[in-house]
Amino acid sequence: MKGMVFTELLGFVEHTYGADAVDDLIEASDLPSGGAYTAVGTYDHKEMQSLVANLSAQSNTPPNELLDLFGQHLIGRFKASFPDFFKTAATLFDFLESIDSHIHVEVRKLYPDAELPEFRAERLGTGAMHLDYRSNRPFAALASGLILGAAQLYGETVLIERSAHEHDGEKFVRFSIQKTDAIA
To answer: Is the pTM of the predicted complex or chain greater than 0.85?
Structure first.
């Protein structure tokens, strides 16, 4: 995983729980990197799992809830760092459709070694969408938070249901996204 995600996680922890919580978290986690991350570095995703598991224990918050909250925070940081990704999409669904076809293409130009998840979007009319998340890493809750945060950035409210699927031996998570103003 790219270091930017790690540095942003530590920033999220500091903002949410305080600077001492960051030190406690790094100390409690068995990190090959020692918790010294650079935004452009690449680190094993298992370090993220260790950090989240220890933060969960320290904060008495379930890991998936932490990842969801972090995702909502992270999308704001992505918008600050990469505003053009958000300017080209007029709506949340436009943005979600652009992840693989535009955003990840540009990310790979900046970070050729980035191992990015795959997102496949399918609109189901004007108010609903399926977004399939394929990744070798178990961060569907982070993706859910990113989706919710993006909806907030676009001033849209959505309901998201998450379900596990398998097709031709390939496992993926499907986010069924419904705009609340489209619910009859």
So the answer is: yes
